[in-house]
Structures are given as C-alpha cells and as structure tokens.
C-alpha cells in the first residue's frame, strides 16, 4: 500500500524533485529534471500555477493552497476545490469537447492537477485590455455555455446520474459561500474586505447601498443562485477564466463549479464584456478605442445569439431528460408545444442573466475582488469615471431586468451611459 503524503505546497525550487517521479509528467516533458524550467505564473486570487518546461514539452501544474492566496492564511479555504475543478473539467470536456485544457493527472492529496500548457494563449481579459479583437470568442464561448449548461441539466441527463452529480458538487460549500457573500451581499453594505475608488465614488456607493430596490433584487438573485440547482455551472466564468489566441478559446479554472441556474454563467460572462466596454476609455493612451467598444457590444450580441441557437438546437435534437419530455410534445405531434416551452426556458434565462450581469459588475467595483480592466487604469479620476458608468449600468440591468427585452436594448443603454460626460 502506498503511503499518502501530507499536503505540501510546491515551489519553483521543490517542484522538480517532488514531481520528477510522476510518469505522466515526465513522459510529456522529459525525464531529465535537471533540464526542467519552472515558473510560477498564478495571477488569480486562489491558487499556485506553475509552467514546467522540459526537453520534450511543457505542462501546467496547478495546486490549491489551504487558504485564499489574495488574502493570506487568515482566510482558510479547503483543498478539495481542486477535486471539484478536476471533476468539472472532465464533464466539460465530455459535454463540449475541445473547450478546456487536456488533463494529464490529478493528485487529490496534494490538490494538484497537471494539465495541458496552452501556448501561445493569453488570458482573454488581458487581450481585451490591450485592445485585441478576437474573431472567434463569441462563437466558442456561446457554444461552450449552451453545451455544458444544457447537457448538465435535467433536459439531457438521466435523472439518477444528475442527482448523484448534484450530491457530489453540493459539497463545494466554501466556494459557493465565497460567491454568495462576495457577489450577492458584500457590495451592498460596508463589508470588511470591500474597497472602491475613493473618494471619487463615495457618494454613488452610498446611493447604491441605500437603494432598496437594488438590494431586494440582489437578494432575489442570491436566492435563485442558492436554490435553483438547474445544471452544472462553471461557476466563475469571467474573462480571466478564458484563454485565447486569434483562433482558439479555452475555458479554465472551474473550481467554483456547482449545480445552479443556467443564467449565472451567461450573465457573469456577458457582464465581463460590458465591463471591458466601460473600461476602454481608460486605455486610450495610444489611440481611441471606438472600434474596440463597437467590437465588445457586437461580441455580446453574437455570444447570446450563438448560445440561443445552439441551446435551441440541443433542445430539438437531444432533449432526452425528464424535463419537458418528448412524450408530452413531439411524440403527440405537438411541435409547437415544444417550441413554446423552449421560448419559456430561454426567456427565463434571459431575464435572470441580466440580473446576474448587473450584480457581477457591482461586485468587481465595490467588493474584494476587482478586475484588471478597471484596476490597470492608473489615473484614478479616469478610473472612477469608467467605474461609475459601469455601476449605473449594472444597477439598471439588475432592477429593470424584467422590462428589458433584447440585447440590442442593453447595448443601447451601455452606449448611452458611455456617452454621458457627467457621472
Ligand atoms: C476570494 S476569491 C475572489 C474571487 O476570485 C475568484 O476568481 C472568484 O471570482 C471569486 O469571487
Ligand atoms: Mg479562477
């Protein structure tokens, strides 16, 4: 019987000795550990990420830490998040082949995953800050969301299998707790770890925290997030969880995976395009970003269109689960009934995604975990102007989501707010 070693965080120095005997890794990158070059590149909030290059190839080693990296060991966080990330990645690969990095090895005790080194991919958020227009992201992300969200739900899965999976991911308690607090509640009161661009945003922040309609809506969305175990979500699908080249798009980091409402992934993702839109003004040092702004609004439209089209296609061709079963509709020749039900489901996703998008914008400006789109704007007055516009946009989406009927309406609202000179 092999003895289980206690967890120990890797470092650039210890990694070759610790993983030199790992046959999967050495088969990929070469056995000679003296030729391994190791870099720690983790720029996320939680984990260690190493790129290991050897004589014959490269791989990524991602390891969870027993605490939140962004905050330090005063905020413990269980290592089991890497178990959920591994299981989410295997399901995403099965449901949307080619959309995630290949997994080479998982070590539960050491909370580490060895996976494909994506190169020359960069983080989508970085690309958007640089003003790069990626031609395929709307298609690739729209397909990924439709396939994973549909195929992980009771529209597709055998119910026994889905319930077993639901039970497995229900244990991802601490990561859900982060989202429940950081996304849905902390931004709306003076929570300990919050920060915002101050003093420029102080009065707007006070206004939002006194906004009863907004707070009620945020809690209704939290209720939906916690209680609607509809499908296996990525759980943290923002532009920092996506790697891109001009041709390719891969989703990474699903450690927040759990069973929740479909609209959550879609709303969080679209919010990140709209935040990028509002941040562009702060990145115009080497020229106007008008074309980039147009591109981002177009990407939002196309992502939602691809999602709807693919989701509708799967509805018509793969609806084999216990929900809206064919015996009630198609098998009785009632094709219109199936379409009516599809419209209902898509409409619910639409209304809810607007709410999730609105509060995702708020938490990135008011909460603990800000995003680089705004944070890299060095001029604080300029940053505050961009953030204030995004905050107003987010508030409008969250509170008025039931009265907004198309993504063009949302984009018109974004363009109007962007043109306002006064904040
Ligand atoms: C304490 S973790 C903060 C944020 O980082 C992750 O990427 C999630 O978005 C989480 O909310
Ligand atoms: Mg992450």
From TrEMBL:
Q: Which residues form the Aminoglycoside phosphotransferase domain?
A: 38-278
Which GO terms fall under biological process for this protein?
methionine biosynthetic process
Q: Does the keyword Transferase apply?
A: yes
Q: Name one GO molecular function term.
A: S-methyl-5-thioribose kinase activity
Tell me which EC number(s) this protein carries. 2.7.1.100
Looking at the record's lineage, which domain of life comes first?
Bacteria
What keywords were assigned to this record? ATP-binding, Kinase, Nucleotide-binding, Transferase
State the top-level EC class: transferase
The entry describes its oligomerization and partners as: Homodimer.
User: Per the similarity annotation, which family is this?
Assistant: Belongs to the methylthioribose kinase family.
**Could you identify this protein by its name?**
S-methyl-5-thioribose kinase
Q: Which organism is it from?
A: Mesorhizobium waimense
């Amino acid at each position: 019987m092999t003895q289980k070693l206690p967890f120990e965080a890797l470092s650039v120095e210890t990694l070759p000795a610790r993983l030199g005997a790992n046959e999967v890794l050495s088969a990929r990158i070469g056995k000679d550990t003296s030729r391994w070059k190791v870099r720690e590149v983790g720029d996320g909030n939680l984990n260690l990420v190493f790129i290991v290059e050897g004589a014959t190839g490269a791989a990524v080693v991602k390891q969870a830490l027993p605490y939140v990296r962004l905050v330090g060991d005063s905020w413990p966080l269980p290592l089991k998040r890497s178990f959920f990330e591994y299981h989410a990645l295997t399901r995403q690969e099965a449901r949307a082949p080619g959309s995630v990095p290949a997994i080479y090895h998982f070590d539960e005790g050491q909370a580490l995953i060895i996976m494909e080194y994506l190169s020359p991919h960069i983080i989508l958020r970085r690309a958007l800050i640089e003003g790069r227009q990626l031609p395929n992201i709307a298609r690739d992300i729209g397909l990924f969301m439709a396939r994973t969200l549909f195929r992980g739900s009771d529209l597709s899965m055998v119910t026994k299998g889905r319930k077993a999976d639901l039970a497995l991911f229900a244990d991802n308690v601490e990561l859900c707790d982060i989202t429940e607090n950081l996304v849905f509640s902390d931004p709306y009161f003076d929570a300990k770890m919050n920060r915002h661009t101050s003093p420029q945003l102080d009065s707007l922040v006070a206004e939002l925290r006194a906004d009863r309609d907004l707070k009620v809506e945020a809690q209704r969305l939290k209720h939906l997030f916690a209680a609607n175990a509809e499908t296996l979500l990525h759980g943290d699908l923002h532009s920092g969880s996506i790697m891109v080249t001009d041709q390719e798009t891969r989703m990474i980091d699903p450690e927040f995976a759990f069973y929740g409402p479909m609209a959550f992934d879609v709303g969080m993702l679209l919010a990140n395009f709209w935040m990028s839109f509002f941040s562009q003004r702060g990145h115009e040092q080497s020229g106007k970003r008008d074309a980039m702004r147009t591109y981002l609004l177009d990407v939002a439209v196309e992502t939602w269109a691809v999602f709807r089209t693919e989701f509708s296609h799967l509805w018509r061709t793969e609806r084999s689960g216990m929900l809206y079963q064919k015996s009630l509709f198609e098998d009785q020749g009632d094709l219109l009934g199936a379409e009516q039900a599809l419209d209902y489901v898509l409409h619910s996703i639409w209304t809810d995604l607007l709410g999730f998008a609105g509060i995702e914008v708020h938490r990135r400006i008011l909460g603990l975990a800000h995003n680089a789109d705004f944070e890299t704007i060095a001029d604080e007055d300029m940053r505050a102007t961009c953030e204030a516009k995004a905050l107003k946009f987010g508030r409008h989406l969250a509170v008025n989501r039931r009265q907004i009927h198309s993504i063009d309406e949302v984009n018109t609202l974004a363009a109007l707010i962007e043109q306002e000179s006064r904040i």
